[in-house]
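Let us work through a complete example step by step.
Step 1: write down the sequence.
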Amino acid sequence: MAIVILITVLSIIGMFILAIFFPRVKIGKFSISTFYIPVLIGAIIILAFSLVDFNELKTIFISKSDVNPLFILTLFLSMTFLSIVLDESGFFSYIALLIIKKAKTKQLTLFIYLFLLVSVLTIFTSNDIIILTLTPFIIYFCKRVKIDPIPYLILEFISANTFSMLLLIGNPTNIYLSLSFNINFIDYLKTMAIPALFGGLVAFGLLLLIFYKKLNKPLEECESENVIINKNIMIPSLIFLVSTILLLSISSFLNIPMYLVTLIAAILLIIYLSIYSIFSKDAKNILFTSLKRLPYSLIPFLLSMFVIVFSLKDAGVVTAVSKFLTNIESTFAYGISSFLTCNILNNIPMSILFSEIIKANTNITQTMIYSSIIGSNIGAYLTPIGALAGIMFLSIIKSNDIKLSFARFSFYGLIISIPTLLISLLTLFLETKIVL
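Step 2: predict the structure and record it as tokens.
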């Protein structure tokens, strides 16, 4: 057990150091993420010294189960591709610009509109997509009208990582924990809708309290600006995305795996763009750029953490944690512990770990699963290392010369995350009691 724990700790420490101080390295013309490298090395060592049951891992990776990590990666990357194509067509920038024009010279109005925009778009895409697409736009706009971008950036990040828990596809952690326990799209939505909405309202109220004075300052009216959109790509990609979400909602009734729905949609969109690129150079560029923008670093990261978590399971760590949590009311035990674990492991490996912790329990309840999902989403904004979205967020901000330190980010996260977490968990707790 000791050697497995040591490898895990060193891998995590290495991941944090690289994520904070050296998030990317340049090799020639290419720039790659570094955060997953220590975790990958840790997984290789575990496999090399047979510190995990290799046959069990092999069985999981070749199984047809929804919990197969390869299927989960396929689902997430396919959905991400659909959203990125939509962004490349100009959709997100166009909608954001409409919101900005409607706000005119009132910062408070802009703040409210941006909250609504981010919340709605996150529900139908994912937190990672919103961070990647809207963060640069917010920075550009705030610089242009000479206002402090921090309130709007914090609003974006908090909103995206709160409303990402409303739909099953909103976050990779939702996907992994739900599919691990055969929770379908509709059942997930029925349970998580109210906690997500209450959590979102609490988070927004706290954001208003924190930034109210700054938002009272007038906003310079922005000159009219046109966003270049490609309707021949935007409309089909929007249809693909909406159709895919609708099919996901009934996939369990049709007995079709969710990853297969998203994969087919992504392939069909690639075929459409490939055919259209014969007549349009823009289509070829959008296809190439969209494929390039996919978060490929998630692949070695998730697979490596999967190996590390299973080595912890074989070492008896998972069973010990599961026994400890049974002594506390499950909603708050799993919600708070997952919230804290996000900021030790990152939320994706946390979801893998908590899936095994829940399975080790002799009396599994739905509350354990949903409270872990709540903790994994809200835990993302306690510190930047709570989620991949946080790492990407700080990287984008740093590259645009915006001053937001790790400590300042965590200060806002601490003030907002704890009340939001407790209200969301309390809502889930009461909802469960009423249903029962």
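Step 3: interpret the result. Residues 2-51+91-227+296-435 form one domain.
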